[in-house]
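Because showing beats explaining, we think one record worth quoting, sequence and backbone structure tokens together, and here it is:
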Amino acid sequence: MIVASELPDTIPVFPLPGALLLPRARLPLHLFEPRYLAMCDDMLKTSTRLVGMVQPYDAPDKDGKLHTIGCAGKLTAFSETEDGRYMVTLSGISRFRIVEEVEGFTPYRRCKVDWSGFDRDLGPAEKDDTFNRDEFMQTLGRFFDDQGLRTDWESLGDAEDELLINSLSMLCPFEPEDRQALLEAPSLTTRRETLVTLIEFALRGGNSEEMMQ
């Protein structure tokens, strides 16, 4: 467990389009680029083992610009393949805001970050007191049928609110900008509302570009 006072001011960042990490969730990653192998090696030498997952803007005119809000994950599982690749798991710790990118000699990007405003990320699992699970599961079933997806419905039905909503937010096939909206949702309730909006929009045959306009 990491407490607020242990959060560093500067962290390495991993810009990965479409990848979403949320607090108290887990994200498996396959690292093979030399710069990210070096990043992992350096992370393992720190006490917090944190990296910031952040999405780059998907537009030619943005030229590698990053979204302001990302989520830091702690490296909690690590293995190396025979050919030198790393299989790692990040456990979501807290969201952050990028203050500025830090210039340096590392092959990977680093940013100065601000953790304020995300205090609940370091606390216990959130509850969604207005969650109508039966209605939600019916809508989710139609979405999975529409998308040709399969899942273990018994496990989903038994999952706690936060685990259910966050897992679906991370795993459902949404566009990067939609995933960013799920990340930035200020509470579990608003994330669930955003998730339902995205699911219902997909069921109506819309696309994310229309939705963002």
